[in-house]
């Protein structure tokens, strides 16, 4: 198991000139972005503006047509570079069904720690602790396919946290949750102390957590070249 230690200073996540095309359309065009320790960066934008694409590109799930990506101080260009960093950078997908595949909740949440090299007992203990923190320890033995949409969301987040990430990338983390569960997730994320990039339409979540935000939507709703520095986003 590899341990990654980023630079003492500088960005934990950095993109320069990031350009991504999907289905023949340029979604991100020359984006510059930095995430530093202690920051909780919220990504806003209309549907199709590239919020999910940005998160996926930062972890190498979709290829960049141009630009560069550095994660925890390491340049990432291909799958071999990205793959070892998908534990230290924990990703919560927009569709929980894309993330849950274990037969039971506890087995699903323990999968990541097992892949990190923990033995079965240690992985199960870490998984149960993550479920307890999320507030769904009572679902540990439940088959994943029997969970409601909101329960799937909570279980997926538990799986991310069980891997003890250094950075979180979260795609609509409160989607499909009732008010009580959304408040629980907000409290967990606030108390985690982890830097994070969050794609979300939840204004209450942003008000509670965001240290700064960016908007990927150009005024005409078409992709535009944007630089992200400090706490502003502006087209050039």
TrEMBL record:
GO MF term set: ATP binding; ATP hydrolysis activity; ATPase-coupled transmembrane transporter activity
GO CC terms in record: ATP-binding cassette (ABC) transporter complex
Residue ranges occupied by any ABC transporter domain in the UniProt entry: 13-235
UniProt-listed PROSITE patterns: ABC_TRANSPORTER_1, ABC_TRANSPORTER_2
Keyword entries, A-Z: ATP-binding, Cell membrane, Membrane, Nucleotide-binding, Transport
InterPro entries in the cross-refs: AAA+_ATPase, ABC_transporter-like_ATP-bd, ABC_transporter-like_CS, ABC_transpr_CbiO/EcfA_su, ECF_ABC_transporter_ATP-bd, P-loop_NTPase
SMART domains: AAA
Signal peptide start-end: none
UniProt record similarity statement: Belongs to the ABC transporter superfamily.
Name of this chain's protein: Putative cobalt transport system ATP-binding protein
Organism: Thauera linaloolentis (strain DSM 12138 / JCM 21573 / CCUG 41526 / CIP 105981 / IAM 15112 / NBRC 102519 / 47Lol)
């Amino acid at each position: 198991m590899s341990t990654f230690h980023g630079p003492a200073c500088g960005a934990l996540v950095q993109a320069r000139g990031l350009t991504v095309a999907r289905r023949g359309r340029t979604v991100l065009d020359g984006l510059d972005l930095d995430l530093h320790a202690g920051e909780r960066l919220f990504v806003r934008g209309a549907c199709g503006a590239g919020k999910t694409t940005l998160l996926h590109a930062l972890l190498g799930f979709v290829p960049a047509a141009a630009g560069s990506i550095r994660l925890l101080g390491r340049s990432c260009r291909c799958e071999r570079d990205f793959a070892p960093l998908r534990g230290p950078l924990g990703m919560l997908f927009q569709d929980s069904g894309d993330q849950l595949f274990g037969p039971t909740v506890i087995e699903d949440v323990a999968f990541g720690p097992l892949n990190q090299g923990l033995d079965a007992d240690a992985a199960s203990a870490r998984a149960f602790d993550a479920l307890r923190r999320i507030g769904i320890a009572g679902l540990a033995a439940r088959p994943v396919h029997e969970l409601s949409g909101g329960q799937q969301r909570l279980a997926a987040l538990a799986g991310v946290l069980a891997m003890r990430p250094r950075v979180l990338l979260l795609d609509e983390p409160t989607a499909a949750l009732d008010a009580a569960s959304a408040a629980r997730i907000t409290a967990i994320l606030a108390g985690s102390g982890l830097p994070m990039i969050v794609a979300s339409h939840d204004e209450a979540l942003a008000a509670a957590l965001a240290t700064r935000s960016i908007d990927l939507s150009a005024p005409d709703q078409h992709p535009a070249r944007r630089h992200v520095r400090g706490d502003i986003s502006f087209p050039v």
